[in-house]
Amino acid sequence: MSGYILYGYPASGSGAVEVALVAANIPFEMKDLDPDAGELESEAFLAINPRGQVPTLIHPDGSVITEVPAILLHLADAHPGCGLAPQPGSSARAQHDRWLAFAHANCYEGVLRVFYSDRYTTDPAQAEPVSKAALAYVIRHLNMMADGMGTGPFMFGEYPMAVDYLVWIMTTWLVDEDLSDLDPKILALGEALAARPDLKEVAARNTE
Ligand SMILES: N[C@@H](CCC(=O)N[C@@H](CS)C(=O)NCC(=O)O)C(=O)O
After folding, report:
1. How do the domains of the chain map onto residue ranges?
2. What was the pLDDT predicted at 1?
3. Cα–Cα distance between 142 and 164 in angstroms, integer?
């Protein structure tokens, strides 16, 4: 049985998983795909993930895991004590999973409407308004996450967990003019995560 294989590319959603794997000290092999060269739609990759999206994680047993929360929570549970999430069944875990699901269902889904707006309208002239509306939606929901945060800098205190890795990568996709609308607690979360000595290098690879 070999280790995990992560398909992704720098500064995409796979960055959340890549950083989480490094933070949890879980060995993995990174396979970078080039979306501009059509590698997400290649026959070989579609055979692995018919949706042609990253992150796609190959479990050591060869099975395929997709969808950021499913991947992160699998890693948390398969590696108890790695710090990716509170203990299964605890109230803290319920809160963690609540906000992870919230971030995925609202913020990440909204981000896809920002960047792939042409997929969400049949009228090309509407792509830009769709994107603009989605950006406001993403920021509104990220700011709601700040309301659910305690003293910070991370969602559940001093140490980052799975939910923080997803929030962090999304903050890196916002441009300067968007950041002024973002709650300072969410901004601080992203900065604190990228500044962690164990994560600096992998975070930088995903923000280029
Ligand atoms: N719901 C998926 C979304 C994954 C996703 O959309 N990833 C983007 C990169 S951030 C992608 O692969 N886009 C290529 C495409 O949709 O064609 C998840 O949670 O993993």
Report:
1. 4-78, 91-196
2. 47
3. 11
